[in-house]
Amino acid sequence: MRYTFSSLIGMLATVSLLAGSTLLLGCNGAASSEPSAEAPIALAIHGGAGVISSDAMSDDEDAAYREALHEALDAGYAVLEDGGTSLEAVEAAIMVMEDNPLFNAGHGAVFTSDDRVELDASIMDGATRNAGALTGVTTVRNPIQLARTIMHESPHVMMAGEGAEVFADGFDLERVDNEYFHTERRLQQAREARSNDATSSLRLSEDMDAPLGTVGAVALDRDGNLAAGTSTGGMTNKQFGRVGDSPIIGAGTYADNATCAVSSTGHGEYFIRSVVAHDIAARMQHGGQALADAADAVIHDALPDLGGTGGVISLDAEGTVAMPFNTEGMYRASIDADGERVVRIYGDAEEAERTE
Ligand code: ASP
Question: How far apart are CA 190 and CA 25, in angstroms?
Fold first, then answer.
């Protein structure tokens, strides 16, 4: 078989492209390859929004939250740096927070009106807009893993309670007693919520803005794929069986490569009614808004119009991060496309004062 010079160059170019590197032709016509400029990666996480005042936070507490946020951020970012997918990064970051009792997800989640823990979670793939979600799960140690398994291994998007748990058994996901999730701090919070209003066993908390510590992550991987995930115990003293926004695709979680990835935290009933996460994406897609403008409009205008409080973390396909909230604070952290790391708890003024 005879090859022409140009067909050989063509074959080399194909091989080189398949290997993911850039073909360079030297002045003697010889082909050499060099790694292409790396595509951006980015990650943002949250650990809940609410009344989070610097004055009420001891140095030890402040340091513990910051350390936990760094730890979750590191876990997710390491996945992206190693060439892992945005879905894997979201799962890794959220699992760290589910295992940390500081946050209202997994171990340390809030209690229901009947003193149990019921967990909600969801995850979405921006490349395919496939999604997995679960609600009212009481024995799966890491709900975000189950959400991803539902997405990949079942024809469904959402499963509830016992059906979701039986499904988990088919995939070796760790099951635990409900007591595993219990912490004294959260039990006291639920009892306090009940005693604050003797007329209603369903009073959610003394102040609807109380920080609850739901967790979430959004990521952009080297292939340009976005993903989002959220995991929570819901709201303190919620009616057992109550479903919040966190497992609702479009409210608590949304991802689409064409626009953005979003994870919400706040008073879930309002986030469901405002379809917060999808509204941000829709404003970008149909209104041509930039991510920060779309996210600000939803969190500072549309959501408060209904009376809703909370915030979001969001990320677009360029790796731009926007993390608006209309509460006093929001546990949040990110590493954007330029590699800039941010770990914050309070509103901007308080944050600057505390970290000076
Ligand atoms: N959005 C969650 C829920 O309503 C609570 C939270 O974000 O803190 O279940």
Answer: 68
Find tokens 């005693």 and name the residue. Answer: 195
The enclosing H or E element of 283 equals helix 276-287
247 lines ligand 1 (CB under 6 A): no
In angstroms, the CA 317 to CA 221 distance is 9
DSSP 318: T
Between CA 21 and CA 244 the distance in angstroms is 45
214 lines ligand 1 (CB under 6 A): yes
Distance 312 CA to ligand 1 centre (A): 11
More confident of the two residues 172 and 134? 134
What value does the mean pLDDT take over residues 1-26?
Answer: 40
Q: What is the pLDDT of residues 235-270, one digit of tens each?
A: 999 999 999 999 999 999 999 999 999 999 999 999
Cα of 120 from ligand 1 centre, angstroms: 9
Rounded to 5 degrees, what are φ and ψ at 41?
-125, 155
Max CA distance (Å), the chain: 90
Which of 235, 262, 331 has most ligand 1 atoms within 8 Å of its beta carbon, as the pocket-test mutant?
235
Within 10 Å of residue 243's Cβ, how many Cβ atoms? 19
Beta-carbon count within 10 A of 312 CB: 33
Q: Would you say the CB of residue 265 lies under 6 angstroms from ligand 1?
A: yes
Name the catalytic one among 112, 149, 214, 320: 214
Q: Is 214 a catalytic residue?
A: yes
pLDDT band at 73 (very low <50, low <70, confident <90, very high): very high
